[in-house]
Amino acid sequence: MHDPVADTPTPAAHDAYDTLVRRFARMGHIANALGILGWDKDTMMPSGAADSRAESIATLSVLHHGIMTTPDMADLLAAAPEPGDAWQAANLQEMRRLHAHAMAVPPDLVEAASRAASRCEMAWRTARRDSDFASLLPYLEDVLARTREIAHAKAEALGLSPYDALLDQYDPGTRQADIDPVFRRLSTQLPGLIADALEHQRAHPAPALPRGPFATAAQAALGQEIMRTVGFDMARGRLDVSLHPFCGGAEDDVRITTRYEEGDFLNALMGVVHESGHALYEQGLPRAWHSQPVGAARGMSLHESQSLLMEMQVCRSAEFMTWAAPVIATALGGDIQSPEWSADTLHRQVTRVRPGFIRVDADEVTYPAHILVRYEMETALINGQMTLHDLPGAFNARLYDLLGLRVTEDRLGCLQDIHWPSGSWGYFPTYTLGAMIAAQLREAAQKACPTLMEDIARGDFSTLLTWLRTHVHHRASSAAMRDIVRDATGAPPGPDAYLRHLRHRYCGQ
Amino acid sequence: MHDPVADTPTPAAHDAYDTLVRRFARMGHIANALGILGWDKDTMMPSGAADSRAESIATLSVLHHGIMTTPDMADLLAAAPEPGDAWQAANLQEMRRLHAHAMAVPPDLVEAASRAASRCEMAWRTARRDSDFASLLPYLEDVLARTREIAHAKAEALGLSPYDALLDQYDPGTRQADIDPVFRRLSTQLPGLIADALEHQRAHPAPALPRGPFATAAQAALGQEIMRTVGFDMARGRLDVSLHPFCGGAEDDVRITTRYEEGDFLNALMGVVHESGHALYEQGLPRAWHSQPVGAARGMSLHESQSLLMEMQVCRSAEFMTWAAPVIATALGGDIQSPEWSADTLHRQVTRVRPGFIRVDADEVTYPAHILVRYEMETALINGQMTLHDLPGAFNARLYDLLGLRVTEDRLGCLQDIHWPSGSWGYFPTYTLGAMIAAQLREAAQKACPTLMEDIARGDFSTLLTWLRTHVHHRASSAAMRDIVRDATGAPPGPDAYLRHLRHRYCGQ
């Protein structure tokens, strides 16, 4: 069928790269449309529009996939001469990687997997509510089977192991062989570190927080003020409300969300700074390469490093609270003089350690334990070393090893996350890789700019942002994540800076 | 180029219709996406996203056009056997009409016209501000030339006159030969009617309105309450704010906007009921035919009749204000007992007659004069009976005939509207055709349901909505507009009911 966005006849080799650039630009424009439609679905869309919206999103996704899988695409990718320019060469390489991912999986498997995921997500909502793993099992078996088929198909096409092929979808270039030693190291250190942190915390009880209610409008105005302060460009983005905070939207239109509770302003605020970290990365990508593969963010680990650097490394620090405490008190009508609005109070509140069952509620110290469990489970399941029947037992045993908590209901254990039911296998490790990279980048930035944290204590984020723009944001996908981290910090992603950070902040070491 | 949304190979004749249904459904899903992206552009989008959004909208429009102009489309439309079912037959007929419109104009002319319009819109903003027609002239010459080329190309393809070919884009099936006698009749009656209305009004001076400020939030809450009352389904739509009120969005997601002034709550409220009239039409279209041509609204005249029936015929009536006055007073913190919040005060305020230069500010009685002038000008210009050099003089002379106002600056005359600079020629008559049809439908509904206005005086819109659903909304594009109006009212669109309505409401006759 004739496609008006095509450039037929297939051009000669010397035009091949230009043709590819035009096609990927069109895919980028469709992706931007999908970004806004997705944001709208979670923030603005009336409930009755769900089916109509699903049809539009599906149609645009098919059109996007259709451009990627055009029959002459492989010829163009093969015919295109290696560009002399490094960015163009990296762009062509990314085009080839994305094309390989798209072509590796037969359309009927894509469809079967997406149907299995939709069914499983439905079953999961009930199963989690009823803490009934047995009722989810047949659906999750189906999702896992399809995911493993996809993993093997991509492994074949990309010359990777099945788990690495899944990982590569979220974190290009990262391999299980890179993660295993790092996570092993973490898992040996974590239990002792958590014990020390709790011990240290007992010696420093947290003072009482100011009591609400805090009007949503005032919290939103405060959120926007903080966004502007950390460097968010309000002319190229927005702040809105959704059930779960996220960063979405499109190029030059980065939209973050949070959720307000009138009784607790810190949750919404930490949501805003976390998503602002993601947004600053998107807003900092080189505009000259918009809508080209090389211009995209370099995977989920580095993306999460940007949100965690902003939230955990910077905005939960004593220095940030030195500047922020009076700003927050003023915005929420509190008394700047009173101890409950002091920087010390707020800092200690946002650094409380409370081991718990729920990953998304976990603090900075216990969070990695939740990820280590999930990573070990999903690698074993994908690699066929474990079956889903054994998942709850294995999950709970491992959580006990790491956190000392006994799961009594699966809704507090392996049923709590939507990732596996929705088919997102290979995603979990990026959270903790991101946390480690965040600490590593912060240490490097601090070393390069000794005034970094003093500047932040004055509400001046330009030192931090300038460094991040140069060493992370502006590089986009022009290099592998490991190389971006190595160039920025002198070492590949590792746990040392992260462990130093946790011991320093939580154990007073 | 391979297109994944195609169904290759081209199917046998007996499948042709089903194939067309699938393709038009896909175009419908893209149109829904474009509807949300357009709404977002005017309500939510940050300024910096303008270019990125324009790229996305252009790409989706090209994809939509590409499906319509697929080479085998003509064969499919020819091969499809006449369906026995009347709706399917009407659907096929609409498919052929839309395809003919799309194929009639060569792509390079479409592009040249759109470039000319963009340039002219830019020039128009300055020219209107400076009231400098001469500076606009070369750009408007270019737009008119391209528009006439398009008109002749479509006239050729559709077997219509050039002006009718343009009109057919906005109001399928309506012809200049239908409009001329009706508008001539109107133009002979209007000056006298306006004089009588002003005379009658002098005898009944309007009481003072309540003074503001009226908080935007309170006005918005009132707007939503009125929307629900008139029958707007809030689960399938929204109310938001934009510079100019509009009704947009998508299927099952009809989004209207208004603009709030703290000093005047009636403007925003009348904007809400006007757009709600459009929205009720969209929400009342048969869901079984969503995303099919036959399921779409039947042209701009009938669409405008729905907004004007709700705003002018119903919500500016004494009966509506009997119900609404206390609701409005309560919502805006007014005193229900005080005369300035009485139904009589509000009714008389929303039926004031004030001849003026600006069309969009015109009242119900003088509005048609603005349309008659524009219709006479654009038909003469498209049919080559006049040149743009003569436009200002002719425009001002004709406005003086009809309204007795002398235009001293073109920004108050032929420079005030964006329609011509943006290439929307053949659109203006649908406003006044809509006003006439609205009066005709209201009379017919009243005759069929004698309690219609008493029900509205109790805030019960179900009588009206039920009648409109049956006689207008549910018919969608299954018949020509003239036939829908004739079936509903016993006569084709004409000026009589409209003139009766104006004389009754404004001249006490």
From TrEMBL, chains A, B:
GO molecular function per UniProt: metal ion binding; metallocarboxypeptidase activity
Required co-factors: Zn(2+)
Active site: 275
Binding site for Zn(2+): 274, 278, 304
Chemical reaction(s) catalysed: Release of a C-terminal amino acid with broad specificity, except for -Pro
Enzyme superclass (EC): hydrolase
SUPFAM superfamilies per UniProt: Metalloproteases ('zincins'), catalytic domain
GO terms of biological process kind: proteolysis
Cofactor note: Binds 1 zinc ion per subunit.
Function summary: Broad specificity carboxypetidase that releases amino acids sequentially from the C-terminus, including neutral, aromatic, polar and basic residues.
Protein name: Metal-dependent carboxypeptidase
Organism: Novacetimonas hansenii ATCC 23769
